[in-house]
Amino acid sequence: MDKNIALSIAFSILFSISAWAAIPVHQANGEKQNQYIDNGVFVGGRDHGPLTLLNVRHSLKGKIERLVFDLGQKGVVGGVERPGFFHISIQTKPQRIVIDLENVTNTKVTAQQISHLFSKSPYLSKISLFEDSFHQNMTIELPLKSPAQMEVFELVTAGKPGRIVLDITSL
Q1: Using one digit for the tens of pLDDT, what is the confidence trace for 58-85?
Q2: Distance (Å, rounded) from C-alpha 155 to C-alpha 30?
């Protein structure tokens, strides 16, 4: 067999296998759509320059657990309206949700405060907060107690901080 043909076949097999393992990527909408995923990624936001994690709120209504992340520019009154760039994935191995917040250089909320908020969570077991000052990103890891699904959307209100809303429910 010709060397080029063998190489071509090897690359075709390699790329077709990686296509099978593609992770679905969804754009976070500006309103709740009731479109939950159990594996994949939500992306959204807009570039604002350096941002601060201003607040994290938690609520439980029925079987839906809601997390709200408020993002704003430090020292700016009235907020940024849309959140900065974000990437939120739900994974099955290990079972967890990973929240990557781009250009978040400061936080007014500690990992201990967030952990306390989630202490009675039916879906989340604990929290890990990682601040990368070199790349100016923040990663929040939320291990899941059992398989779950999530929906992510942005809340935009004039004069308010950008808000990322994460709804979690069981499969």
Answers
A1: 999 999 999 999 998 866 666 667 888 9
A2: 6
